[in-house]
């Protein structure tokens, strides 16, 4: 049977836990919108200057005339 390891000191446990935080998502401004690095731009469908997605043209919303 295995034997439990040595008890971690309070400072060692806190030092280990200090590195378990979540990182913020890095964003780049490209093509008039925000994009994550190494991802296809959702606004234009380009990646590293090449067109990789065919985007459908957006439909214009009809304006409602109020009386």
From TrEMBL:
Annotated spans, Disordered: 1-67
GO MF annotation terms: structural constituent of ribosome
Keywords: Ribonucleoprotein, Ribosomal protein
Top-rank taxon: Bacteria
SUPFAM superfamilies, per database record: Zn-binding ribosomal proteins (SSF57829)
Family to which this protein belongs: Belongs to the bacterial ribosomal protein bL32 family.
Protein name as it appears in the record: Large ribosomal subunit protein bL32
Annotated organism of origin: Candidatus Buchananbacteria bacterium RIFCSPHIGHO2_02_FULL_56_16
């Amino acid at each position: 049977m295995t034997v439990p390891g040595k008890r971690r000191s309070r400072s060692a446990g806190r030092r280990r836990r200090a590195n378990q935080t979540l990182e913020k998502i890095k964003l780049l401004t490209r093509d008039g919108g925000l994009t994550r690095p190494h991802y296809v731009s959702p606004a234009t469908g380009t990646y590293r200057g090449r067109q990789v997605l065919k985007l459908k043209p957006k439909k214009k919303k009809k304006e409602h005339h109020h009386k």
